[in-house]
Design goal:
Blueprint lengths: L2 E7 L1 H18 L5 E7 L3 H10 L4 E12 L4 E9 L9 E9 L3 H11 L5 E9 L12 E5 L5 E2 L15 E6 L1
The structure holds inosinic acid and magnesium ion.
The site of inosinic acid (IMP) has 17 residues, from strand 5, helix 3 and strand 8.
Amino acid sequence: MSETIRELLSEEEVDQKIKELGEVISRDYEGKQVHLICVLKGGVFFTCELAKRITVPVSLDFMSVSSYGDETKSSGVVKIVKDLDESIENKDVIVVEDIVDSGRTLSYLLENLKSRKPKSLRLCTLLDKPERRVKKVEVDYTGFEIPDEFVVGYGLDYAQKYRNLPYIGIVKLD
Ligand code: IMP
Ligand code: MG
């Protein structure tokens, strides 16, 4: 089976939105240091671009989680594949994700991180598919709300492909 990709959000739209998010976060965290937690692998492109747009001091850490499920659906059972390198105790933390879909991964992850006693904990996602929500997740910073379509690009994959696209596209199976 092959697939085609139809552009949903252009490179310019995504770049502009990340710039705006960076400005808002820089204002919100004025006088503080922000500790970004990138959720691998999908969050990596967004995290790098966002970090470059934040003007307060930034530190970075990475976490990798896998949710047991098929390619297009997560099951809600989440395993930490790579944990953080550093403690987040007493830090102002923002989790940076590519997309919130059912909310299962993030609701697990945020609960887990909360128990590690950060000073504050917020969530920033490039994309949100609110129609698909099964678990309630409070999102503090959202790039775009998108319809219930499977998307790729800017870190998001279909069977590990297309993460490197500089725009967001909808996958159509032929
Ligand atoms: P959730 O637990 O259902 O919210 O799903 C979270 C994860 O599923 C995301 O971090 C993505 O890795 C993946 N995912 C959900 N929707 C899409 C999509 O449209 N394209 C690519 N990956 C997706
Ligand atoms: Mg992800």
